[in-house]
Amino acid sequence: MKILLTNDDGIQAVGIRALYRGLCEAGHEVHVVAPITEQSAVGHAVTLASPLRVKEFRENGFFGLGVSGTPADCVKLALSALLSEPPELVMSGINSGANVGVDILYSGTVSAATEGALAGYPALAVSVDDYAPVDLSGQGAYAAGFAAAVPWAEVPRGCVLNLNFPRRPMSESLELRLCPQTQATYKDWFDERTDPRGRTYYWLDGVIPGKSVSPGTDRDLLTQGYITLTPLRFDFTDGPTLQRLKGLLDGKGIDAAGG
After folding, report:
1. Pairing mode of beta strands 159-165, 200-207
2. What span, in angstroms and rounded, lies between the C-alpha atoms of 30 and 163?
3. Helix, strand, coil: what percent of the chain each, to 5?
4. Which of 14, 257, 223, 251 is nearest to 131 (CA)?
């Protein structure tokens, strides 16, 4: 396949290099367009107030284009200006850190894949439950094989497949499990610290409490050691509440007849 590969950890990150090698070794035609610098947790931000610049990266058999922007910028720019032909698949990853539950909203990795899906392309986001991975060659090879095995014509337009690996070697990882996104959210806190000049600053930290995670969801299965797959669709409309509000607002002088 012709694959557009991007990420949010930056073009020099371990994950994108492992995925690039895995895809190339599997015979795919890979075009890398990724942020020059780390863009973790930027969500679906796009750059409007400054220009985007592109830099070539050639090293140790790797070639890619680095962009001075966000993951969504990279996909937009690649599809609109940098690629001579459209890709057959947009892949984003391998991200350092799982993208499950509410992380999906914050994730630049998932947002890059989503930008591809919104443009009408099959899209796959790939992450690993490890913030400091050293060797992801096994995960890269697995993801490459997975991408080739998916019957993409059967995946609805606008859907993103969200693939996550557990924090363990591939040889110890459990089988792939299809599962829903956990609805549990973070318990956040800020570490208060002091810089060398005596000024206070704050650093965000947080966890998803284990007791709030429902069995069989992505976070639960990933913690157990399974590879997880969740299909995502970004329609934020709350259908039941939409219908309930129509009934509540009816007769109150408010036009709520929209559908």
Report:
1. unpaired
2. 19
3. 30, 30, 40
4. 14
Q: Which two tokens stand for residue 81?
A: 């200006």
**Residue length, the chain?**
259
Q: Which residue has the tokens 């299809």?
A: 178
Tokens 């129509």, located at residue: 246
Q: Phi and psi dihedrals of 202, rounded to 5?
A: -130, 140
Q: State the Cα angle at 25 between 24 and 29, rounded to 5°.
A: 25
**DSSP summary character for residue 82:** I
CB 85 within 8 A of CB 123: no
Q: How does pLDDT run across 238-253, given as a tens digit for each residue?
A: 999 998 998 888 766 6
pLDDT in tens, 135-177: 999 999 999 999 999 999 999 999 999 999 999 999 999 999 9
Q: Are strands 159-165 and 62-67 parallel, antiparallel or unpaired?
A: unpaired
Cα 192 to the chain's mean position, in Å?
A: 29
Smallest CA-to-CA distance from 72 within 55, 47, 52, 95 is with: 47
**Separation in Å, CA 207 to CA 106, 184, 211, 229:** 14, 10, 11, 21
**Contact (CB, 8 A) for 72 and 111:** yes
Predicted confidence (pLDDT) per residue in 62-121, tens digit: 999 999 999 999 999 999 999 999 999 999 999 999 999 999 999 999 999 999 999 999
- HEC string of 132-195? CCCCCHHHHHHHHHHHHHCCHHHCCCCEEEEEEECCCCHHHCEEEEECCCCCCCCEEEEEEEEC
